What does this fold into?
Amino acid sequence: EGGMERDARQLGTVVGLMVADSWRDGEPARGLELVANELVANVDEKTETTRVRWVLLDAEVGAESTPSVPLKDLGSVLQGRGVSLQRTSEDGKECLYTYVPVIIGDAPVGAIELTEAFDELHLHKRAILIRTFVLSAALIGIGALVVLFVGFVFIGKPLRRLGNKLKRIGEGDL
It folds into this structure.
């Protein structure tokens, strides 16, 4: 989960810098939201497991550019710091929502929202647990076979020989 958060913050930071630079470097007349939406849409097309969106921190509830997480939980973004939160999405999936502010001038004007479902992470964890169980069972089985072999060869055989000798001695063969 920490790796997912780190990767999302890095991607969000890069995209946020691209938005701010593109807008500053000659496209202010087109409007920040248009520039941001185009850049973010291009990035979103290229990412397979992460959804990338441009959100406005002052958007009306229900608008397309409203963050998926309530604004009351995004206080640090309003202060210019990124945040990652685990929440359940509208379709019932556990997701990591990461918000990276885009700062132009002294204040954040919007944020890059990155959403990544934990489905893949949970599948990966499950596969690791299954492999660990199978490997542990195999090692325990091999260990048990080695113990049985050593027991029969180094303890069983000599005890049988001793038993046979004691039996012969008991029958009078000295």
